[in-house]
Write a structure and sequence with these properties.
The protein is of the alpha+beta class. It has two domains: 14-161 and 176-186, Beta-Lactamase; 212-457, no CATH class. The protein is built from 18 helices and 13 strands. It is a multi-pass membrane protein.
C-alpha cells in the first residue's frame, strides 16, 4: 500500500492521546520508567508555560525535575521523590522548584506509575499545580529586606495562573473544573488509561494491513512478483509461446492470484500521512484507485493464454508479450516491503545478491534480443557473420543454415537454453570484470550496450 512512512506494523497505542484529552487544563510530564534517571518523553503545553522551559529543553531530562532544583529546594523532599521513582510508587509532594528564569515557585507534584497489560511499569505520569499563593512568601536573594506584604504582592503578581483561578465563575463552571481536576489528579486505576496496544476498530469487511492473513498474503504476492520479474523478460526476449500445459496453468494461477490481490486491496487499511490507520472504505478505494490500481490491473491480464493460441497474429502476440513488462512495475511495492528488513546486515547482503542476479538476468535478456535482432538482415535475408550469435553457433558446433527446400528461412543455431546461459555468462562477467573475450560485442549496437552495461557494473 502506498505511503511515505513504514506505517504501523502493530496496533496503535492510544495512551498518550487519552492522557492529553483528559488533562487538557493541567500540567504534566511523562517519563520513561525503563531507562536510568527516568528521562522525559513528553511534556504538555501546560507544563512548558508553568515552568518557562520549551519542550525541547525538557525532553530527555529527568522526570524528577532535578533540572528545576535550587538552593531553597528541600533535600528531604528531593530524596522522597527519588525513592518514589525507585520503588515505582504513587505519591504526592509539595516541593519548591525554580523556573527557567530562576524564579522559585511552590508546586503540588503528583507521581503515578503507568503499567502495561503485563503489569509492568513502563511510564511515570507527573502532574504539577502552582500553589505558591497558599504557601509562606518565599524569601530569596532578590527579596531580602522586603516586608512580608511586599513578598506576598510579588508572589501574587508572578502567579498569573493562580490569579486566573481566583476570577469569579458561575456554579456550572466550578463543578466542571472540580470534576476535571479530580479526574486528572486522582490517578486511580479506574481513571488512568492503561498503557497497552489497541487495534483500531474497522468495519467487518475491512482487513487490517498488518494482520497475520495479510502479512502471509503479501509474502505470497512478493514471491510471485519475483517469479514474474524473472519469467516476463525471458518470455518477451526469447519469444516463447507457452504451449507447455504445466507452465500455462501455473501462469494462469498467478494471474488469478494477482486478480484476487486487487479485490483485497480495495478492502485493506493503509497508513495515512499522519501515521494513522485509515479504515474508511471510501478513502481506501479512492486511495487505491489513485495509486496502484491501473498497474495491478494491467499486470493480471492473461497475456499467456492469448499467446498460447496458434492462430494469433505474430504482431499481436508480440504486443501482448511486450505488455507483460508492465508487471515489473510491481517491484516498486516489493521495494517498500523489503524496506522493513534493511536494518539487518544479513538481510541487506541477501537482498543485494538477489538484486544483482535480477539485474544480470534482465541485461542478459536484452543482450540476446540485440543479437537476435541483428544476426539476420531481414531486407537481404542474409546472416551477419560478425554477430555474437553467429560466432557462438560456430564455436559450439551448431551453425545457422539456410533452408532452401522448405520455408526459405535461416534455421539451426544454439538452443534457447544455451543462448540464455551464454547471455547470462556475458552479462555477469561484464558487470563484475571487463569480460574474458570468449563472447565479445562486434556490432555497433552490441558495443553500445556493452559500454552501458560496464558503466552500470562500475557503480
Amino acid at each position: 500500500m502506498p505511503g511515505g512512512k513504514r506505517g504501523l506494523v502493530a496496533p496503535q497505542n492510544t495512551f498518550l492521546e487519552n492522557i492529553v484529552r483528559r488533562s487538557s487544563e493541567s500540567s504534566f510530564l511523562l517519563g520513561n520508567a525503563q531507562i536510568v534517571d527516568w528521562p522525559v518523553v513528553y511534556s504538555n503545553d501546560g507544563f512548558c508555560k508553568l515552568s518557562g522551559y520549551h519542550r525541547a529543553d525538557v525532553m530527555q531530562k529527568s522526570s524528577t525535575c532535578s533540572f528545576m532544583y535550587g538552593e531553597l529546594t528541600d533535600k528531604k523532599t528531593i530524596e522522597k521523590v527519588r525513592q518514589t521513582f525507585d520503588n515505582y510508587e504513587s505519591n504526592c509532594f509539595e516541593i519548591l522548584l525554580y523556573k527557567k528564569n530562576r524564579t522559585p515557585v511552590w508546586f503540588y507534584m503528583q507521581i503515578a506509575p503507568i503499567r502495561n497489560e503485563h503489569e509492568k511499569v513502563v511510564l511515570f505520569l507527573c502532574t504539577f499545580k502552582d500553589i505558591t499563593l497558599f504557601k509562606q512568601p518565599i524569601e530569596d536573594d532578590s527579596t531580602k529586606g522586603w516586608t512580608k506584604f511586599a513578598r506576598l504582592t510579588r508572589a501574587l503578581t508572578n502567579s498569573r495562573s493562580v490569579l486566573q483561578q481566583l476570577t469569579p465563575m458561575n456554579k456550572a463552571e466550578v463543578v466542571h473544573k472540580h470534576s476535571r481536576l479530580a479526574e486528572v489528579l486522582q490517578l486511580g486505576s479506574d481513571i488512568l488509561p492503561q498503557y497497552k496496544q489497541e487495534a483500531p476498530k474497522t468495519p467487518p469487511h475491512i482487513i487490517l494491513h498488518y494482520c497475520a492473513f495479510k502479512t502471509t498474503w503479501d509474502w505470497v504476492i512478493l514471491i510471485l512478483t519475483f517469479y514474474t520479474a524473472i519469467m516476463v523478460p525471458y518470455n518477451v526476449s526469447f519469444k516463447t509461446k507457452q504451449n507447455n500445459i504445466a507452465w500455462l496453468v501455473l501462469d494462469s494461477v498467478v494471474d488469478v492470484i494477482f486478480l484476487v490481490d486487487i479485490v483485497l486491496n480495495f478492502h485493506t487499511t493503509f497508513v495515512g500521512p499522519g501515521g494513522e490507520v485509515i479504515s474508511d472504505p471510501k478513502l481506501i478505494r479512492m486511495n487505491y484507485l489513485k495509486t496502484w490500481f491501473v498497474i495491478d490491473l494491467l499486470s493480471c491480464l492473461p497475456y499467456d493464454i492469448i499467446n498460447a493460441f496458434e492462430n494469433v497474429d505474430e504482431g499481436i502476440s508480440s504486443l501482448f508479450s511486450s505488455l507483460k513488462v508492465v508487471r515489473l512495475l510491481r517491484l516498486g511495492r516489493v521495494a517498500r516491503k523489503l524496506d522493513h528488513y534493511l536494518e539487518y546486515g544479513a538481510a541487506v547482503l541477501v537482498l543485494l545478491v538477489c538484486v544483482f542476479g535480477l539485474v544480470a538476468h534482465w541485461l542478459a535478456c536484452i543482450w540476446y534480443s540485440i543479437g537476435d535482432y541483428e544476426v539476420i538482415d531481414e531486407l537481404t535475408n542474409t546472416i551477419k557473420t560478425d554477430s555474437w550469435l553467429y560466432q557462438l553457433a560456430l564455436s559450439i558446433g551448431t551453425p545457422y543454415r539456410y533452408n532452401t527446400t522448405g520455408s526459405g528461412q535461416w534455421e539451426g543455431g544454439p538452443s534457447k537454453d544455451s543462448l540464455y546461459i551464454s547471455s547470462l555468462y556475458f552479462t555477469m562477467t561484464s558487470l563484475t570484470t571487463i569480460g574474458f573475450g570468449n563472447i565479445a560485442p562486434t556490432t555497433d549496437g552490441e558495443k553500445i550496450f556493452s559500454v552501458a552495461m560496464m558503466m552500470v557494473g562500475c557503480k
